[in-house]
Amino acid sequence: MANSLDDVIDAALRVLDKRGMEFFSMRRIAAELDVQPSALYHHVDNKQTLLTLMASRIVAPVVIDEDLTTVSHRLRAAMLGIRDGAEVVATATAFKLGSSTLEAEIARFSTPDIARTLLIYIIGHTQATQLHTQASALGLISQDSDLDASFERGLRIILGTTGANPNK
Amino acid sequence: MANSLDDVIDAALRVLDKRGMEFFSMRRIAAELDVQPSALYHHVDNKQTLLTLMASRIVAPVVIDEDLTTVSHRLRAAMLGIRDGAEVVATATAFKLGSSTLEAEIARFSTPDIARTLLIYIIGHTQATQLHTQASALGLISQDSDLDASFERGLRIILGTTGANPNK
DNA sequence: ACCTGAACACCGTTCAAGT
DNA sequence: ACCTGAACACCGTTCAAGT
């Protein structure tokens, strides 16, 4: 009974979360919707476009305000919330330098340079975290339990804040 | 007459530079070597392994010394030197947080946190630059001629250096 | 050690046609 | 507007066999 574009994005995010980027394909999304692969192209121009829509959806719930440390943690959490979420955001959204609304919104509370540097760091570190977590889940590398703390320390290098956090 | 692993890596880098990531395939590398696709698997376990070897090759000539600003520019230049070079390095090398030799070498001249943050930034910004350059070459977005300066300003945010450069 | 030939189980995308 | 069915031009990888 007639899927909408939103149904397609939902199904795509479900496939991603269940199988990961490695097995993320248009054909699996079609199967998830009980539809022929060609049907997807009525809603979306191509796979890349779909990935961009997914990235927007992942990032959309993140509230941007003046507390950039908290904003950074929110963004990280949003991407970590879905398997390979950071990779999707990395390849689709954030790397449209300048034309990203996220970058502009963060710049409102700091400077364009800080916004850009911060965004690159957040996405990059989170992507690394996700890859690392997967690899150690497969027993390929030893666990590095320090990743949350590592993220926080990098944040302080960029934002120039000290250890004392008045909001906590 | 019998290819070596090095021949395979060479051919792979040639294919990447000529066609880009989008058309980078084992089958094209095989064609570049005038060999059957299956022959590649005598030299390399799989495509991912080959990408890791390519990333090492891209980054290998970069000299690491105490002038981290210059080191950063060298790394950026090395990745920009080959089409989609930053993407290959991003997915293959750098994101082995901690287990990257590059990260350890940079840490010798600063701190582990600065090394990690810097590396994430350099690779991320360079990847963004390369995507941006390609997109604007295709007329998809407007030119942003500021990317070199943008890179430099982000560098200063992380390294905490001021405008004055005693080495220049 | 290095490679061929053939096969397997997949891809993204297009397009005419149906409802 | 939304979907089917069939096709096209590809993929990565395995494996027996050749030299």
Would you tell me the structural class of the helices and strands of chain A?
A: mainly alpha
Number of domains of chain A: 2
CA(first)-CA(last) distance of chain A? 49 Å
Strand content of chain A: under 5%
Average pLDDT confidence of chain A is 91
User: Approximately how much helix is present in the residues of chain A?
Assistant: 55-70%
Largest Cβ-defined interface: A-B, 30 and 30 residues
Q: From the alpha-carbon coordinates, what is the Rg of chain A to the nearest angstrom? A: 18 Å
- Which geometry of chain A do the CA atoms define? globular
Main β sheet profile of chain A:
none
Number of strands of chain A: 0
Low-pLDDT runs of 5+ residues of chain A are: 164-168
Helix tally of chain A equals 8
Oligomer: homodimer
Question: What sequence of helices (H) and strands (E) makes up the elements of chain A?
Answer: HHHHHHHH
Structure commentary:
Two copies of one chain form a homodimer. Chain A has 168 residues and is an all-alpha fold. Chain A folds into two domains: 1-44, Orthogonal Bundle (Arc Repressor Mutant, subunit A); 61-159, no CATH class. Helices cover 62% and strands 0% of the residues of chain A. Chain A is built from eight helices and no strands. Chain A has helices at residues 5-19, 26-32, 47-59, 68-80, 85-94, 101-107, 112-137, 147-159. The longest helix of chain A is centred in the last third of the chain and has 26 residues, at 112-137. The N and C termini of chain A lie far apart (49 Å). Chain A binds chain B through residues 90, 94-99, 113-114, 116-117, 120-121, 123-125, 127-129, 131-132, 135, 141, 144, 147, 150, 153-154, 157-158, and chain B through 90, 94-99, 113-114, 116-117, 120-121, 123-125, 127-129, 131-132, 135, 141, 144, 147, 150, 153-154, 157-158. The first copy, chain A, binds a DNA duplex (19 and 19 nucleotides) through loops.
